[in-house]
Design a protein that fits this description.
By secondary structure, the chain is of the alpha+beta class. Helices cover about 55% and strands about 15% of the residues.
Length: about 120
């Protein structure tokens, strides 16, 4: 995932973060890979861009874990696309991962808000 291809603005995600983003995105309904990439990009206001080299292996991994399932469908444009949807197991896993992410996010916010004099022993 990168920000507009600028190597200085590259955002490296913690392992598993892309999985969480995909699962969260699929909560809104079934979607094909390209649609997921566009959804992630637009929802993040162009901060996160997922390339196919990261997205499709993540989708395969999630499918192997049975957190998502896929089927071939014909798109509005008449093309065959693989459409992914969240499974019940995926919804349950998403709840757990969201809690973990919120805990980590809260901890990071506290650390980043700490003023130097508060952190000194």
């Amino acid at each position: 995932m990168t920000d507009r291809g600028d190597p200085l603005a590259r955002i490296e995600l913690l392992q598993g973060t892309l999985d969480l983003i995909i699962l969260q995105s699929l909560r809104w309904g079934p979607c094909h890979g390209y649609g997921l990439a566009r959804l992630i990009q637009s929802t993040s206001k162009d901060v996160l861009r997922v390339n196919t080299g990261s997205l499709y292996p993540a989708l395969q991994r999630l499918e192997q874990k049975r957190w998502i399932e896929a089927e071939w469908v014909v798109s509005d444009r008449g093309q065959r696309v693989r459409e992914y949807r969240l499974t019940d197991a995926g919804r349950k896993h998403l709840v757990v991962e969201r809690r973990r992410w919120e805990t980590l996010s809260d901890a990071m916010a506290r650390i980043l808000a700490l003023r130097p004099e508060e952190g000194e022993a």
